[in-house]
Design brief:
The chain is mostly helical and 161 residues long. It is 92% helix and 0% strand. The radius of gyration is 37 Å and the shape is rod-shaped.
């Protein structure tokens, strides 16, 4: 009789603990999934922002090969994170997404500085290729006029003597 009471008590506690564990397990899985989902979304928006910054730098004439390689690494990590998320590995997905964000940490500022340097180079190229020849032509014309005037005066003086 006592043995049955002990068995019933043990079974009761096992069922109670099983219900307790399974009641909280889905909540923690949902929390991991929600956290991974938000990190993936923020990583994706960061990737798009960095891509647009690199595209703007390239449009300004900057050499973006370094930016492209960084984007490739970050994109690969993000792709792995999405695969891990779809496989149910939410903590791995979150870790990979964070690594991808770390790769992209300074890319926007680097792209911006490359863009401004390219704009300055274009301004300098404009002055050297367009304004420079015009100034040179004006200098040749003015110099020729000065030499002509001086030679004319010299010839007039020599002609008077």
């Amino acid at each position: 009789m006592r043995f049955r009471v002990i068995i019933k008590t043990v079974v009761f506690f096992l069922v109670l603990s099983l219900l307790f564990v399974t009641g909280f397990l889905p909540a923690s899985v949902r929390a991991d999934q929600s956290s991974a989902s938000s990190v993936l979304a923020s990583t994706e928006s960061k990737l798009v922002e960095c891509f647009n910054a690199a595209k703007a730098a390239e449009a300004a004439g900057a050499n973006i090969s370094g930016l492209t390689s960084t984007l490739n690494v970050a994109g690969s990590l993000f792709s792995q994170a999405e695969f891990a998320y779809s496989s149910g590995n939410f903590s791995g997905a979150e870790a990979l997404a964070v690594q991808s964000q770390n790769e992209l940490s300074n890319l926007v500022s680097t792209a911006s500085s490359l863009q401004s340097a390219a704009a300055q180079k274009q301004n300098l190229d404009f002055y050297l290729t367009f304004v420079g020849p015009i100034v040179g032509a004006v200098a040749v014309i003015v110099g020729s006029f000065v030499v002509w005037t001086l030679l004319k005066r010299k010839n007039e003086r020599t002609g008077e003597k």
